[in-house]
Amino acid sequence: MRNCFSKSRSHPTRKLDHRSFKFNAARHCNFETLAIAGYGTALGIVRSLHAQGSLDRVYFTETRLYNQGARLTAFELLTEEIPAQLVCNSAVSALLRSDPMIRAIIVGADRVAANGDTANKIGTYQLAITARYHGCQFIVAAPTTSVDLYTKSGADIVIEERDEAEILVQTGFERQGVLEGRLKRVEVQVAPVGTRAWNPSFDVTPAELISAMDGQYLANKQINVQYAFKKDAKGERHGSAAERLLAAQAQKNDRTL
Q: CA-to-CA distance for 62 and 90, rounded, in angstroms?
């Protein structure tokens, strides 16, 4: 895998500088106002960039299996009137290749291990891989409550495997009913009866694929995607990513991009 990320095969890093030009961003899953109240985490960064006039467009994934992106993030973006487009989970790599203005992929985290590995909605890991290949920043926006210093690494995080039926059968509202203002939930069998499925809820993203990690709800609505990975005068990082995240929260009054 390391060879796949060599300079000869990956793309130049797309610089993230919201002060000089507008750019596009992509995000995955939903861990925002509807889920946690307040300003939100990953979408909080999007809101902040939009308010500053730095964001041209945000692409967001449907986030299967429960489609949190298509159902929840879409609603929030429409409410905020932020220019956005929904994409299939499997289309993100093609999207990064087709739109060089995408500077970052922004996700949340359900748990951050002591070494900086993060567990998040299934599909996050593959986004980190494609972000690295295409030279995009991969930003994890997580509250400090997600940090678990008792879990040494992502290898120690137990991943729940859910019912196969969640893949084999899809649910949603009948379209005509929605257009007419009445909601009728229906189930649709999408795979032949007897098909087996593997259905993990989360995956683990290694710390080395994460460009930056931000802390508690972007205090004062000022984005900070660098402080948690702050370097010393020699350019070296000290402490685990999780410890740096906690330190960043403690120093939230000193937040500059």
A: 10
